[in-house]
Amino acid sequence: GENVEQHPSTLSVQEGDSAVIKCTYSDSASNYFPWYKQELGKRPQLIIDIRSNVGEKKDQRIAVTLNKTAKHFSLHITETQPEDSAVYFCAASGGGNKLTFGTGTQLKVEL
Amino acid sequence: NAGVTQTPKFQVLKTGQSMTLQCAQDMNHEYMSWYRQDPGMGLRLIHYSVGAGITDQGEVPNGYNVSRSTTEDFPLRLLSAAPSQTSVYFCASSSGLAGYEQYFGPGTRLTVT
Questions:
Q1: Which of A9, A43, A93 lies closest to B107 in CB terms?
Q2: What is the bridge-based pairing of β-strands B54-57 and B64-66?
Q3: Do B98 and A102 lie within an 8 Å CB cutoff?
Q4: Within 13 Å and on the Cβ side, how many CA atoms surround B68?
């Protein structure tokens, strides 16, 4: 089945700096790569996603890049703000059209 | 729309007890899933359903049963609770299994002593 690895597990940045979270996947058939944000005690919520026919997608301060050859994709957050502090999960669709999640990155934006 | 709802929010069980976690959605989604979330392990798929009457196993199905008699409801049953099942459980629904946004419920925090 699909295996998704996510790094780093924790990330601390200064307010205004950029943050990058990286994921790799194993199943070359995967074609959908979402990112979810989970605030403390809350449910995960989709923030951005990308499909395999697109190399990059941007939504305001958030962007995702995909390299299908290398089987990795990344989340980029620019001009970070305190409200960006949360746990971020990447995921990939594997065989059987099921989503496999990474282990999460705890992002802390410091003032 | 209420979206995806789950009950209860918190539950404490003794080893060997059984219980059912409830999940309901009002978005007319065909696809529903159950995940468990443990520290450092992300979200792992337990069981999923592609429509009423159809269920299948995910990554960690042992110790859990599901059924889907209606489009709206997808209960998760713990047959004989074990401490290893202490976790936060999330139900999710979507228009499709993959390639579609998963809408998560608020979660149930379960402790098995």
A1: A43
A2: unpaired
A3: no
A4: 22
pLDDT tens digits for B76-101? 999 999 999 999 999 999 987 667 88
**Does the beta-carbon distance from A99 to B107 stay under 8 Å?**
no
CB B67 within 8 A of CB B3: no
Q: Are strands B10-13 and B108-112 parallel, antiparallel or unpaired?
A: parallel
Q: Is A32 on the interface with B (CB under 8 A)?
A: yes
Nearest CB partner across the interface for A43, out of B97, B101, B105: B105
Q: How confident is the model at residue B17 (pLDDT cuts 50, 70, 90)?
A: very high
Q: What is the arithmetic mean of pLDDT over B21-50?
A: 93
- pLDDT band of residue A96 (cuts 50, 70, 90) is low
